[in-house]
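User: Just a sanity check before I run the rest of the batch. Below are the structure tokens for the first item. I only need the designed sequence back.
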């Protein structure tokens, strides 16, 4: 039996989801795993290096801030902790405390390094033993079950490591990105108690799922016609 965190409800489906403005944005490179590292370190690229890490399978729950949860997702990939220790730390000369995550669709978020070093945080490239699809983060994404969905960045393009906290989101919508967003503490947003956001967000679930589904169907159709023309 899974115990749901405060304010969450189990969902039968695992939809492609996010802020409405991302429904029509898609990753450009989904077949090859390749992303860059930077920030307070010198830039370098990660690709085949991941093969030197231990492959791990993990069953974990996924909690979207809008109150839906998908239980028992079957991920496979690499521990972020091992990734950091083996592939990043040798290039680090300062004390890193903050990580900025950037995606191929323009989405970005951040987390304290200590949150990403938890034992259940993955760089995941498979779901249900299959390579990640366009819907769920191809070719590789972050899975951090103890943080709301919006910290589980899909389509990783770049990971930046910093000694100091950075401002990642500015403007009106910045309140939606809590610096930690821990599900157990109901840290849904950076302003006000989490509980009020349950009610604000849950009315948007259906329309968001529909918008994302429609955008994905159209995009897949376009990919298919392009293929046929070649
Ligand atoms: N690159 C990227 N990552 C993202 C998002 C996005 O729009 N783009 N949305 C976030 C949000 S709000 C949620 S709930 C989850 C949804 O993951 P899913 O689409 O695999 O269900 O992805 C998160 N990571
Ligand atoms: Mo979300």
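Assistant: Here's the designed sequence for the first item:
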């Amino acid at each position: 039996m899974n115990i749901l965190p405060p304010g969450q409800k189990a969902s039968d489906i695992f939809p492609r989801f996010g802020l409405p403005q991302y429904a029509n944005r898609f990753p450009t490179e989904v077949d090859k795993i390749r992303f860059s590292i930077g920030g307070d370190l010198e830039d370098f690229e990660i690709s085949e290096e991941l093969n030197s890490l231990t492959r791990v399978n993990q069953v974990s729950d996924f909690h979207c801030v809008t109150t839906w949860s998908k239980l028992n997702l079957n991920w496979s990939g690499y521990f972020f902790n091992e990734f950091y220790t083996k592939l990043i730390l040798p290039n680090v000369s300062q004390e890193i405390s903050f990580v900025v995550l950037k995606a191929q669709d323009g989405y970005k978020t951040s987390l304290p390094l200590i949150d990403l070093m938890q034992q259940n945080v993955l760089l995941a490239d498979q779901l249900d033993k299959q390579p990640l699809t366009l819907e769920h983060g191809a070719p590789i994404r972050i899975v951090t079950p103890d943080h709301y969905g919006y910290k589980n960045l899909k389509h990783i393009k770049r990971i930046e490591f910093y000694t100091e906290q950075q401002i990642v989101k500015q403007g009106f919508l910045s309140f939606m990105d809590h610096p930690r967003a821990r599900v157990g503490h109901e840290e849904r947003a950076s302003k006000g108690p989490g509980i009020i956001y349950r009610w604000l967000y849950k009315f948007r679930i259906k329309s968001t799922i529909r918008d994302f589904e429609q955008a994905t169907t159209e995009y897949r159709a376009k990919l298919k016609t392009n293929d046929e023309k070649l």
